[in-house]
C-alpha cells in the first residue's frame, strides 16, 4: 500500500509538471501568434486614460510615434470608431475602462496593418475635437473630446460622413464651439437655465411647499418669451419641462446653442428665515462669504442627489470639463451682475451686498459670461408669496430684460 501511495504521488507530481509545461508552452505560443499579427513597425500605445461625466468625456491615448487616425460614427448603438495604423496596445485594460459618456470601450488589431478603438456611448454623442499633441517627455498623445448631442444630429453625422476621407486634422474641431463673448453672427443669444428639475426638486416653499423647480421654470419661460420679443436677441431654455439636467449638461447645452450669455435661475432656502431678497452670483474659487459658500455647495450637490457622481478633473483636461472662466469672460460676468443689481435697485428687494460670488459648477463655461440669480428665498414667507405672484414675476423679468439690453450694448461696444 505504501508503494502504491508513493507511485500515486510520483504520478501526481509528474502530471503537475506536465500541466505546468503545457500551460507555459500554450501561453508562449499565444503570445508568439499575437506578436506575429503586429508588424515590427507598429505603433506602441503605451498609456491611456479617460475622464468625464454624463455630458462630456475626454479620452487620451499616448503613442511612441505620431499616429494617423480617422473617425467614423456608427448607429445602433451609437458608437465612435477610431481607426489607426498597426498598433500594439501596451497599457492595462483598466486604464481605458468605460466611464462618463461611454458604457463600453474596446480596442485591438483589425488586420495586419490596422487597429481600431470603438467607443460605445450611453447616448448620442459627437466629437467636438480630435487632435494629436506632442508630449514633452515621450511620443505623442491622441486627445478625443466628446460631448452629448441629439439623436437627430447624431443621425446626421452618420448619414453625411465620408468613410473614404474621415481623417480629422490636428487641432481641427468637428463642430466648432462658440468663441468670444459677443454675438459674432449679429444675434445676441441667451441661454436661460431653470434650476433643478425632474428628480431634483430643489428647495420647497415654507408655506405652500411649492418646489423650486416649478418656480424657476415659470420664471424662465416668461423671461425667454420677453427676450425673444427684442430685436437682435434670441433666447432659449436649457430645459422646457420637468426634466433633470446635470450641471455639466446645462453648460454644454448653452455652448451648443452658441450662447453669448448664460442666466441660471434659482430660489433657494436659508436657515435664517428672516433673510429675503434677490441675489446675483458670479463664479469664483473663493466664496465672498459663508452664505455664498453654503449655497454653492448645496447647488453643486444636484448631480449627486440625482445619482450622478462629480468627477474631479485631471490638470490636463481641466480646460474641457470644469475650467475656470477666462479673465475676460469673468469680467463680462461681473458686468452683467452689476447691471442686474442696478436694474433691480428700488424696484425689487435685494439682500445686503446683492452681488456675491462662489464656486457654482453651473457657471463654469469657459467662454460664456454667466450669472446665477437667486430670485428670492423660499424659506421666507414674504419672498415665497412674491415668487408665486404672476404680477411680481412679470415685473422682475421685465427688469431683467432691461439689464440684458444694457449689458448687450456694453458687451458689443467692447468688442468682447
Please explain how this structure is put together.
By secondary structure, the chain is of the alpha/beta class. It folds into two domains: 43-160, Immunoglobulin-like (Sandwich); 188-413, Aminopeptidase. Helix content is 32%, strand content 26%. It contains nine helices and 15 strands. A six-stranded mixed sheet has the order 11-10-12-15-13-14, sandwiched between helices. A hairpin with a 5-residue loop joins strand 8 and strand 9 (140-148). Helix 7 packs across helix 9. The protein is elongated and about 75 Å long. It starts with a helix and ends with a helix. Mean pLDDT is 82; it is low at 1-37, 165-183 and 309-325.
Amino acid at each position: 500500500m505504501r508503494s502504491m501511495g508513493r507511485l500515486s504521488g510520483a504520478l501526481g507530481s509528474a502530471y503537475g509538471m506536465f500541466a505546468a509545461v503545457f500551460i507555459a508552452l500554450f501561453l508562449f505560443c499565444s503570445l508568439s501568434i499575437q506578436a506575429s499579427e503586429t508588424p515590427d513597425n507598429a505603433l506602441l500605445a503605451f498609456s491611456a486614460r479617460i475622464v468625464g461625466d454624463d455630458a462630456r468625456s475626454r479620452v487620451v491615448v499616448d503613442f511612441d510615434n505620431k499616429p494617423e487616425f480617422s473617425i467614423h460614427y456608427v448607429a445602433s448603438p451609437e458608437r465612435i470608431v477610431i481607426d489607426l495604423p498597426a498598433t500594439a496596445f501596451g497599457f492595462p485594460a483598466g486604464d481605458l475602462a468605460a466611464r462618463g459618456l461611454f458604457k463600453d470601450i474596446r480596442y485591438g488589431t483589425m488586420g495586419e496593418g490596422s487597429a481600431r478603438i470603438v467607443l460605445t456611448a450611453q447616448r448620442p454623442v459627437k466629437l467636438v475635437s480630435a487632435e494629436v499633441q506632442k508630449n514633452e517627455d515621450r511620443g505623442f498623445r491622441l486627445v478625443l473630446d466628446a460631448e452629448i448631442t441629439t439623436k437627430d444630429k447624431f443621425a446626421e453625422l452618420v448619414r453625411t460622413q465620408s468613410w473614404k476621407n474621415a481623417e480629422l486634422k490636428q487641432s481641427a474641431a468637428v463642430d466648432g464651439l462658440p468663441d468670444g463673448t459677443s454675438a459674432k453672427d449679429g444675434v445676441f443669444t441667451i441661454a436661460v437655465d431653470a434650476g433643478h428639475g425632474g428628480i431634483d426638486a430643489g428647495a420647497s416653499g415654507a408655506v405652500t411647499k411649492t418646489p423650486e423647480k416649478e418656480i424657476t421654470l415659470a420664471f424662465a419661460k416668461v423671461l425667454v418669451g420677453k427676450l425673444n420679443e427684442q430685436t437682435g436677441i434670441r433666447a432659449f431654455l436649457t430645459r422646457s419641462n420637468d426634466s433633470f439636467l446635470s450641471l455639466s449638461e446645462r453648460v454644454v447645452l448653452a455652448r451648443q446653442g452658441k450662447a453669448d450669455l448664460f442666466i441660471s435661475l434659482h430660489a433657494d432656502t436659508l436657515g435664517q428665515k428672516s433673510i429675503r431678497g434677490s441675489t446675483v452670483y458670479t463664479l469664483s474659487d473663493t466664496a465672498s462669504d459663508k452664505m455664498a459658500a453654503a449655497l454653492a455647495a448645496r447647488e453643486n450637490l444636484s448631480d449627486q442627489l440625482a445619482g450622478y457622481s462629480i468627477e474631479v478633473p485631471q490638470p490636463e483636461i481641466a480646460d474641457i470639463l470644469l475650467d475656470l472662466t477666462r479673465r475676460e469672460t469673468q469680467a463680462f460676468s461681473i458686468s452683467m451682475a452689476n447691471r442686474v443689481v442696478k436694474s433691480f435697485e428700488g424696484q425689487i428687494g435685494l439682500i445686503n451686498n446683492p452681488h456675491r460670488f462662489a464656486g457654482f459648477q453651473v457657471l463654469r463655461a469657459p467662454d460664456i459670461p454667466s450669472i446665477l440669480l437667486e430670485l428670492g428665498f423660499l424659506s421666507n414667507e414674504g419672498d415665497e408669496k412674491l415668487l408665486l405672484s404672476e404680477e411680481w414675476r412679470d415685473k422682475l423679468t421685465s427688469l431683467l430684460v432691461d439689464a440684458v439690453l444694457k449689458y448687450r450694448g456694453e458687451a458689443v461696444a467692447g468688442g468682447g
